[in-house]
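Form 7-S
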Amino acid sequence: MQERTAGLDLASEEHRLVVVEGDGKEREQQRIPHSEEGIVALIRCLRTSNVSRVAIEQPNGLVVDRLLDAGIAVVPVHPNQLAAARGRYRTGGKSDSFDAYVLAELARTDMHRLRPLEPDSDETKALRALTRAREDLVEQRVALANQLRAQLDAFWPGARQIFFDVDSPIALAFLERYPSPTDAHGLGEKRLAGFLARNGYSGRRSPTQLLERIRSAPQPRLGETEREARRAVVLALVAALKPLVEQIRLLTSEIAGALRAHNDGNIFLSLFRDPKSVVTAAELLAEIGDNRARHPASASLEAIAGQAPVAVQSGKKKVACFRWACNKNLRDAVGVLADSSRHHNPWAADIYQRARARGHDHPHAIRILGRAWLRVIWRLWQDHTTYDPNRHGSLKRVLTTEG
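Output:
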């Protein structure tokens, strides 16, 4: 008996399931409500139909976790792969279950291009949830901080310049107390010194220097009504930013604890000199995972991280292009590691500088360095060992040459 495959097209309220026979004939299709009863029925249907694997666009989420927990093989299909395959099967209009059918066919015919999902440990999935949630909050913080900067530039430039980051706790406390030039009209050195002491200011600027920043800033000319409106906007943005900044701080602390408690935590922590890099180390671990079978060679890790180019050939012309289809979170984390390491690691600096000397721009040179780092990381990851500069052969060769 030929094995059966299935495709599952997920939606917010109702999923579409299509099961195909080993010869490609459609066996059945169903509408699956997104409810506990629906998911139980889905698993029962797949088991009674003896489905060998299920293809799905989304590589994670509640439905995927339930399928894996039930022992059902899940095959993630990238949206670009699904889009490219639709033309093979389209003979007319698009039906509601068309994507589910294409997914089922890909699971039947294209397993040489696809790989079943291999779940990570609960600890790794928890760390991934923390790091991705923190990244979402950081994006919101950046957006709100940019709005706050725009308001201050328009009517209160002095407050924009007094502290380095407008969304730092000390800057937000200042704006909460002095949301407009009118509120800071009587602000002097003694009063500012008291404010700084109460709020635990740790900067190196004296109250005199900070006041000079305020007073030397340009003075806009606004009507009273507009000034009061902008003051209200500043207070609203500060009220939105303060809890956001605090929650990011708490999440960062939780991520640090989860990373240090993880069995692979020391591997990724060893890649960084600065203890503040704990978030990037956690992101690398969370996105790479702990299932070594997922990346049997470093090449697959380099590709999924977006550090290896894509070869595009047309006739006799063959060029290397930027890899858009990749894990964006992992790509960003590798970029941070590469960019920071070139400032203190002679091996990393050498790779980066040689790439620039060949005419590559900064982002391209960082990807070249990132790819080199991933080869190191893959070896450490497979061997369950930490990074030791004294055992890094390429680094020792660079130091010998320089010495």
